[in-house]
């Protein structure tokens, strides 16, 4: 079984895409919560971004993950959210959750790994965070969730010239976190990112469907910081 704490690859400058579009509407109602769940980046918001961290929510809905952004006590945050297969947005869009220019709170400040930026801490300041809705224990990821996550990473790769590391939360914080988990097909994901097949995923650029089918917020949310 795959070990999520080993999930990591780097992006070769020679293969950097020129532009990759995303269908990424704001998750409804998140804007008022940004001041309480983000920080001004300590590095240049474009040139200083060098990593993308892949997470899974350990919950079963987008609304449950978003409830972590909205909670008053110990909020967490992430830049994008990839819907689960039973949600109407699956196959259609990924949610933008907080501005990329701000540091989202998706990795504990003390977490680090010697393979990544020389073991630097405060990962949130120099990274972007993607959450994939997945309940974890024995919940498979859909093919589209892997493709959509790869497309987000390619979007970032095109936009951030110094982006180098793509890795799991588990690699940065193995004592506390195992996400995105052993069911996330990291090998396929890596191939989609590096070879650009994710750009062939047509549904991700399709128009968003109505939001009326969103589930109510759940008590459990994503992995926190
Ligand atoms: Zn996580």
TrEMBL record:
InterPro entries hit by this protein: Amidase/PGRP_sf (IPR036505), Amidase_domain (IPR002502), NAMLAA_amidase_2 (IPR051206)
Cited CDD domains: PGRP
Domain N-acetylmuramoyl-L-alanine amidase: 38-181
Entry EC number(s): 3.5.1.28
Catalyzed reaction equations: Hydrolyzes the link between N-acetylmuramoyl residues and L-amino acid residues in certain cell-wall glycopeptides
GO biological process, one term: cell wall organization
Record's protein name: N-acetylmuramoyl-L-alanine amidase
